[in-house]
Amino acid sequence: MVLLRSVPPPSEGVRHEQGETTAVLDGKGLGAGTLYVAETRLSWFDGSGMGFSLEYPTISLHAISRDLSAYPQEHLYVMVNAKLNDEMQENAHDEEDEDKSSEEDECEGITEIRFVPSDKAALESMFSAMCECQALHPDPDDEDSDGDFDGDEYDVEEADGMEVDAGSTVAGQFEDADVDH
């Protein structure tokens, strides 16, 4: 069961609002609602006011997926470094879980969310707004987030129908890098 809660949508710092957007969380459709890309959070709410909000540091990747063999509709793909369901949030790790390796814990703590807008032309502006907002929240554990990035370490190209932003620091640093487009 997905944890949906009743809270008001963001009212300040909203960079993009996309109505008629279906949310699919780990393969389970939550229905149509409104996606809010705000400076502090990414939020989605259905028509009754139930929804969820994500803080940008928990988002490890976001991309536009146009690969219809992976999912039948073009969408904004978001990978979150947390398990967003009731069972994972209600059950604390017991002593057996503490013995697992951190790699296993990372695999268990991933949630995939697909935001499918009714207007596919909105995908670019949804993605751009997320890039801008995620750049406002650099990863404190990322060594490259100190601003000394020269652009030579990364080879970014469109692959398998996805335009990828692998994190806030990469997106923010490419704005400063001397890159031919």
List keywords for this structure.
cytoskeleton, cytoplasm, alpha+beta, disordered C terminus, ICln, PH-domain like, 181 residues, Methylosome subunit pICln, 9-stranded antiparallel beta sheet
Please specify the SSE layout and strand pairing:
Elements: E1 5-6, E2 14-25, E3 28-38, E4 41-46, E5 50-55, E6 59-65, E7 75-80, H1 86-90, H2 95-98, H3 102-108, E8 111-117, H4 123-135, E9 162-165, H5 168-176
Subcellular location: Cytoplasm, Cytoskeleton; Cytoplasm, Cytosol; Nucleus
Keywords: Cytoplasm, Cytoskeleton, mRNA processing, mRNA splicing, Nucleus
Organism: Salmo salar
What does this structure look like?
- This is Methylosome subunit pICln.
- It is found in: Cytoplasm, Cytoskeleton; Cytoplasm, Cytosol; Nucleus.
- Keywords: Cytoplasm, Cytoskeleton, mRNA processing, mRNA splicing, Nucleus.
- Residues 87-109, 134-181 are annotated as: Disordered.
- Helices cover 21% and strands 34% of the residues.
- It is α+β, with helices and mostly antiparallel strands.
- The protein has a domain at 14-86 and 109-136: Pleckstrin-homology domain (PH domain)/Phosphotyrosine-binding domain (PTB) (PH-domain like), CATH 2.30.29.
- A 9-stranded antiparallel β-sheet has the order 1-5-4-3-2-8-7-6-9.
